[in-house]
Amino acid sequence: MFNQSVHESRSSSRDRTDDRESTTAVRLEDVTHRYGSSGGRFRSSDERTVTALRDVSFDVPTGTIVGLEGPSGSGKSTILHAVAGLLVPTEGSVRLRDTDLAALSDGERTRMRRRHIGIVFQRFHLLPSLSARANVALPLVQAGVPRSDRRERATDLLEAVGLGDRTAHLPGELSGGERQRVAIARALSTDPDVIVADEPTGELDTATGGDVLELLTDIGRDRAVLVASHDAATLSVADRVITLRDGRVDDDR
C-alpha cells in the first residue's frame, strides 16, 4: 500500500545503517505499575493503589507486530502508555533501543517520544480546524521542520495511505476510515522506530477496518508495532499475541 517514494524518503531521512531488521526496538523488563488514589504514580506505602501491571517482560523487534489482548483493566493501555513514555512504571524498565525511558527527564522523554514513537488513537484525535495535511504535519511543526519540507512530507504520506485527493479536507469532511488513515499518516510523520496503536479499528466497520489493518501490516515491515485490541481480526495481523489478565502476562503465542 505504501508507495515507493515514501520508503525511499525513509531510507534517506536518517544517517544510520540498515541493521534495523535484527534489532530489538522495545524491551520491557519486570515492569510493574501502580496507580495511586491521587491518579499519579505510586509514592507512599499508605496510599490506596491499583496495580495495573505486574512483572511484565517482553521484547518487540523491529519488523514485528505484537498484539496485546485481554479484558478491560488487564493492563493493555498502561503498557502502551509506558512504551510511549507517557508514564514511568513504578518498577522495572522500558527501553527504547538502548535508552531506559525512566532515566530521562520529562523533557527528554517528550523529545524521545516525538522523534521515535508514533501513536495511533482509537478516536483519531485530529484537530477539527486543520486540514488533513496540516494534521499530519503537526508533529513536524513541533520538531522544527521547515514549512516546505513538512508540507511535502505530509503530502507524500497522505498519498501513501490512499488520501492524495483529501489533503485539504477537514476531519469533519472525511469518513471514519479516512480519519484513521490521516491519524496513521500523522503517526508516521517523524519516521518513528515504534508505532503504538490503541484499538485502531474500534470505531470502524469491518471493511474499513480491514483496509486499516492492511496499512498497519505494511507499516510493520520496517518498524516495531504494538497494537492493543479486543478484536480478533486486528490481532490476526500480529506476529505475536500477548494475553494479559489482571496486569500479568497470561499467555504469549
Automatic annotation (TrEMBL):
Keywords: ATP-binding, Nucleotide-binding, Transport
Xref: InterPro entries: AAA+_ATPase (IPR003593), ABC_transporter-like_ATP-bd (IPR003439), ABC_transporter-like_CS (IPR017871), ABC_transpr_LolD-like (IPR015854), MacB-like_ATP-bd (IPR017911), P-loop_NTPase (IPR027417)
Originating organism: Natrinema zhouii
Protein name according to UniProt: ABC transporter ATP-binding protein
Domain named ABC transporter: residues: 26-253
Keyword Transport: yes
Entry GO MF terms: ATP binding; ATP hydrolysis activity; transmembrane transporter activity
Highest rank taxon of the organism: Archaea
Chain coiled-coil ranges: none
GO CC, any one term: plasma membrane
Annotated region (Disordered), positions in chain: 1-28
Family matches, as Pfam families: ABC_tran
SUPFAM superfamilies, alphabetized: P-loop containing nucleoside triphosphate hydrolases
Compositionally skewed regions (Basic and acidic residues) per UniProt: 7-28
